[in-house]
Design goal:
With about 350 residues, the chain is of the alpha/beta class. It is built from seven helices and 15 strands. The strands form five sheets. Strands 6-5-4-7-8-13 form a six-stranded mixed beta sheet, sandwiched between helices. The chain has a three-stranded antiparallel beta sheet with strand order 1-2-15. It has a two-stranded antiparallel ribbon with strand order 3-14. The termini are far apart.
């Protein structure tokens, strides 16, 4: 049997010791005969309850130790790589020119899932940008958190949009990569930039060249078409959906007609050149092409396997539930008796 405690064992002992001492002291007190009183069933009932409470504490302690039985071994692939994903969340990311009328954001989500599947065991960070850049998720191996962040992702509020730059995340990306390089210099770093390249700021886009020194591989993924797609109005109000509608049914208009967002390949290729990675135009009918992780970082764990464990904490959880049931039953019985006694006294 092995144990995987939720807290340090020493800390668990410190937490439980005072409570166990108190329960033991109450048990001894109940068993010690009072002068002039005869021991009997009335004295035994409280003592039994304190025994059950001690058992409940023991069951809780064992549950927190998380006991288990080794259940074999499975081989696990680890990618010793830090991957930073940069996602465009401007209004154009919900333009409906992906896979017969779906939004570009749907394609982004699908491709990020493919990236996660391609590099098992890697650490992922998520940066989004519209009018400003935001680190949504610092480097973590929790891919569930990454996918959840993308599922609830929605574009900027249309009424607050004042134009955005496709390079506004350059400083945050460089800082994130530099921090990763400083804290774990032995790990490689990859960057994936996902956007449509549409520059709506009057200024020239900022350069990502400062991040190139930290990048070993990656790709710029472009979304959209030259024909363009309409964009739904986003309000960001209560009840907003994550499909871009955000509680509004209308579309953004320009001179009385639906505004069309088109992809800018040239801008995306410039970003790819700055980062030193490849550029790939994405569409729903073509499979994504992902670079291999640097060969020096893709390996099996040192032991070659990770043991599976059959968890046994649930057995002690069931014991706790049963003992709590006894405690509640006794409390209910005592309350009923006290109410009956009060009624009798009131009638007298």
């Amino acid at each position: 049997m092995i144990f995987q405690p939720v807290l340090n064992v020493f800390l668990l002992v410190l937490l439980f010791a005072p409570v166990v001492f108190l329960a033991g002291w109450m048990l001894v007190k109940c068993l010690r005969p009072v002068a002039g009183a005869s021991a009997g069933p009335a004295a035994g009932a409280p003592a039994l309850m304190w025994v059950l409470r001690l058992l409940m504490l023991l069951a809780c302690f064992m549950m927190l130790l998380r006991p288990g039985i080794p259940g074999g071994a499975t081989q696990t692939l680890a990618t010793e790589t830090d991957i930073v994903i940069v996602v465009d969340t401007t209004a154009s990311i919900v333009a409906e020119d992906w896979d017969d009328g779906q939004q570009r954001l749907d394609g982004v989500r699908q491709d990020v899932q493919s990236i996660v599947d391609e590099y098992p065991g890697a650490r992922f960070a998520l940066i989004t940008f519209d009018a400003s850049a935001e680190l949504r998720l610092p480097l973590t191996t929790d891919t569930t958190a990454l996918i959840s962040s993308l599922e609830i992702l929605h574009p900027e509020v249309t009424s607050q949009s004042r134009g955005s730059s496709i390079g506004i995340a350059n400083r945050m990306l460089k800082e994130t990569l530099a921090s990763a390089a400083e804290s774990a210099s032995d790990r490689s770093r990859m960057v994936f930039y996902l956007g449509d390249g549409e520059q709506t700021d009057s200024r020239d886009p900022e350069s990502f060249a400062g991040s190139a020194q930290y990048i070993d591989a990656g790709s710029v993924l472009g979304y959209g078409t030259s024909e363009g797609g309409p964009m739904k109005i986003t309000t960001g109000g209560f009840g907003s959906s994550t499909d871009g509608s955000a509680g509004a049914d209308g579309y953004i208009e320009y001179e009385g007609q639906p505004a069309m967002s088109v992809i800018d390949d040239a801008n995306l290729q410039t970003i790819a050149g700055d980062l030193g990675v490849s550029y790939q135009l994405r569409s729903a009918d073509t499979a994504i092409e992902l670079p291999e992780a640097p060969t020096a970082t893709k390996n099996y764990t040192e032991s070659g396997s990770v043991g599976n464990v059959i968890e046994l904490y649930w057995i002690f959880a069931l014991v706790m539930v049963a003992l709590l049931g006894v405690e509640l039953a006794r409390a209910t019985m005592l309350i009923t008796q006290m109410r009956g006694l009060a009624i009798r006294r009131g009638g007298a």
